[in-house]
Write a structure and sequence with these properties.
By secondary structure, this protein is an alpha+beta fold. The protein is 50% helix and 22% strand. It has eight helices and 14 strands. Strands 3, 4, 5, 6, 7, 8, 9, 10, 11, 12, 13 and 14 form a twelve-stranded mixed beta sheet that branches. A two-stranded antiparallel ribbon has the order 1-2. The protein starts with 5 loop residues before the first helix and ends with a strand. The relative contact order is 0.08.
């Protein structure tokens, strides 16, 4: 189990405090989207405070910075409230998640607009530049995560995520306003030998924003690197799956085609045209139902009854399908995505009375049935081929030559027992 981070612990602690307020919002009928909209309106108020302060106050009056910071924190609270309203009120929706994400971006852009306007108006030109760089980094932190998750990889790590940015700006803005009230907004510190001041009251606000400018962009770059690593791994797995899965997909479709042609049959006693390869018989699999083998290699697909620790059937997923790779020392390995979705995966449909209808995903017109035998009270798979019912043990596909894309499938052989008299039975379906 993954360790809970300090950030997650703090978040859970905040939820304990705000949950009563959240329940109150739910009782008065506020939806998550309404809470998100309120957050945007409050951030517009933040921008208004900074712009109004830029126009109406002088450089030494930092009270507007403090009030702006207080509203930043209050608006940031609604970023947490909307998600909790959705969860506690059972009002989560896919559009709600999109709406929240879009309005969060607007909120942050509008907040930084006000900050940059204030800094430029009061001639903090270098600080306004860093504020704009911090805005760029903030957008890229969010965009990198969204784009990576859109491509199927998780990308949440790094410092200066949105809650950290909101808290940092809110706290330092309040601290700047309070400090300006007590020591004055024009307080400066000089170092002998340096012709300019190294610190002033406004630095309480601008230095953390400068640090944020670096940290947000570092976070975005680190997320990009993590996403690159994860995406490259997925590409390698996809290429490997495709390379190994093309032949398997073709074979699976050919199996399906052959099974669908079951009206054309050979006698069950026909043993002509055997495979030149000696195929092993899977052993030591307690709940094996049947297995599938095909030329030109001995790797075997095993279909096994899926039971829990008490030996009871797991009804939600009664079949396990996997490889026994005899060419790799008998290693068991799950099907890859292509094999599972397009070739050898098994679709299961419950039909009542603890019975299930099965079919290969590559072909739905050859039904198999998972049910208990009246003789041994155990589950087996039954098929009908050439008008004969078979308790299935093995499916074999004989491939003899042909091209990569069009292998020459000679026949499909179904082997098992006759459930009426428990005698061996083999039926071939000729392609």
């Amino acid at each position: 189990m993954a360790a809970i981070t300090l950030r997650d612990r703090l978040q859970q602690g905040i939820y304990v405090v705000i949950n009563p307020f959240v329940k109150g919002l739910i009782r008065i009928g506020l939806t998550p989207n309404a809470v998100t909209t309120i957050g945007l309106i409050l951030n517009i108020g933040v921008a208004v405070i900074f712009i109004f302060g830029a126009e109406r106050s002088n450089r030494g009056d930092l009270s507007f910075v403090g009030w702006g910071g207080a509203l930043v924190l209050f608006a940031g609270l609604f970023d947490m409230l909307d998600g909790q309203v959705a969860r506690l009120g059972n009002m989560s929706s896919t559009f709600g998640a999109l709406y929240d994400s879009v309005l969060d971006r607007y909120s942050e852009l509008i907040m930084f607009l006000g900050i940059c306007y204030y800094l430029v108006s009061h001639h903090y030109f270098l600080s306004s530049l860093f504020a704009f760089i911090a805005l760029m980094g903030s957008m890229m932190v969010s965009y990198t995560r969204a784009r990576a998750e859109g491509l199927g990889v998780e990308c949440k790590g790094g410092l200066m995520q949105r809650p950290e940015r909101v808290i940092t700006i809110g706290v330092v803005a309040i601290a700047c306003g309070i400090t300006g009230h007590f020591i004055g907004g024009d307080y400066k510190i000089y170092v002998p030998g340096i012709p300019f001041h190294v610190f002033e009251t406004m630095s309480i606000f601008t230095i953390p924003i400068t640090i944020m400018a670096f940290m947000t962009n570092i976070t975005a770059v680190n997320r990009l690197r993590e996403a690159k690593k994860a995406l490259n791994q997925k590409d390698e797995e996809r290429r490997a799956a495709f390379k190994g899965g093309k032949t398997l997909l073709i074979a699976g479709l050919l199996i399906a085609s052959a099974l669908g042609s079951s009206s054309v049959a050979m006698a069950q006693t026909d043993k002509s045209d055997p495979s030149p390869i000696k195929f092993p018989t899977p052993k030591g699999i307690a709940n094996q139902l049947f297995y599938l083998q095909r030329d030109p290699n001995t790797n075997t697909i095993v279909c096994e009854l899926n039971v829990d620790a008490k030996g009871q059937l797991i009804k939600e997923e009664p079949i396990k399908v996997y490889w026994v790779r005899y060419q790799d020392n008998g290693e068991k390995k799950d099907l890859n995505y292509i094999q599972r979705k397009f070739a050898y995966g098994i679709h299961v449909e419950a039909i009542g009375n603890d019975e299930y209808k099965l079919n290969f995903v590559s072909y739905k017109k050859f039904p198999m049935y998972l049910m208990k035998s009246a003789a041994d009270k155990k589950y087996h798979v039954y098929v009908t081929a050439n008008n004969k019912k078979i308790q299935l043990e093995r499916i074999f596909v004989r491939i003899d030559g042909g091209s990569f894309w069009v292998p020459n499938v000679k026949y499909v052989e179904l082997k098992g027992t006759n459930p009426s008299n428990d005698t061996p039975i083999t039926e071939r379906i000729k392609v």
